[in-house]
Amino acid sequence: MSQTLYKYFHDLFKKPNRTDFEIIQLVELKYDREYIFYTFIIHFIAYFLLILPPFFSFRAEVLPYLLGITIARLVLLLQSYTKIVNLGFVIYVSGFIADALLYIAIAYSIHKIPSLENYYLANAYLMVFIIPILLFSFRVQRSACLYPGFFLILFHCVYIYFLPDVFWDETTHFSKIFPIITFAGTSLVGSVFILNKRKNITDLYRLSEERRYIQQELELAKKVQDALFPKDLDINGLKYKYYRKNPNLIGGDFFDFVQLREGNVGVFLTDVAGHGISSAMVASIMKVLVSTIPYRFKLSPSKLLEYLDERLAKDLNKYHASAIYVFFDFIEKKMNIGNAGHPYIIHCPKDGSFQEIETEGAILGFNIRSPIVYEKIMEFQSGDRFVIYTDGLIESTTSKGVELGADGFLQILNKNKELRKLQDLEISILHELKSEFGIESFSDDTMFLLLEVD
């Protein structure tokens, strides 16, 4: 506890380095103007003296002092919006004049009516000076509160020296020096406020700079990840369209085509657990693994996914992912599906309806079993459509407060199954999600891939 406090006060009172100094300079004028505005508004409190004892007995004599305070504050207010070289100097001069005039007005009341009652009233009025001292804590200069505290202590020493003789015998020494103690304490408290504010400003600036840097890095990472996705590829035997959305610019949803020598093609799609930078990195690693995997594994979903399972468990044991790999054999018109803990692939025969193809498999990265999936082989024909998606889509919450679910997605697909172009189907899916289910954004990484056999 003591070490924590020591570190706090050490950081608070240590001399600022060049970087901190430059940061403070960027905001100094803003805080100075804020101080000037509030000081100008609050100084009108001094006019209440005209209705308080004993000042109401000689208002005409006190009023010029109060008007002098207003002039000093008004000049400062006007100067704050000009291109003045040293606004801080003007602030201190204006404060010195305004505080001196108010002190003179209060001292005048003691000499005008030298009664014990007026003496204690004057002491009470002097306590109001803690307000202008604390107002200086709006600024960011380290010594901003010390200067007014010093001026007021000086004023009060002069005030005590010129007190009428009657008060020296009838009052205690503590009552005379109590305002000095108050001014000194208030100056120290205000200085701590300023130092704490300066520390917060520099800390927030650094955090802002770090965030800006991270944002730039994320935007670069997004460009890199976007480049990894298939771009206008001509896949023999397949048409495709895909949609993806990441709440954090980059995410762990990824797909790729594996083109084989015989003219056949594999479709790989994965959803790495979590979202953001780490999942995006793992998804990128999986793309590299799929691209460099031994050729014979690309012909078998179970071998490919088992290979990925072993690599995730061995090299990236803190991460896991669901994945699906579909191998299209255009020679025999057959497809082989391997599903490792991923939502079921959806199939729509030509002139038929969309329905799920149930498959069995375990999620990647835990090395749960071997083989990791049970392959499912089925025939296809020209015009068949397939939809592969990640769970961010069906886990989205509708306007009724429930998840869309696989049934809701099937409802959208079958409602628009007559659309002949995949692009039109994609647009309709997004429109239905928004208009019929009230889903305007996705809280998790979301992707769906539309495939059609030529």
UniProtKB/TrEMBL annotation:
It comes from the Bacteria. Residues 234-453 form the PPM-type phosphatase domain. GO terms for molecular function: phosphatase activity. SMART domains: PP2C_SIG (SM00331). The chain crosses the membrane at residues 35-56, 62-82, 89-108, 120-138, 145-162, 177-196. Gene3D superfamilies: PPM-type phosphatase domain (3.60.40.10). It holds the Pfam family SpoIIE. Keywords: Hydrolase, Membrane, Transmembrane, Transmembrane helix. This is Serine/threonine-protein phosphatase.
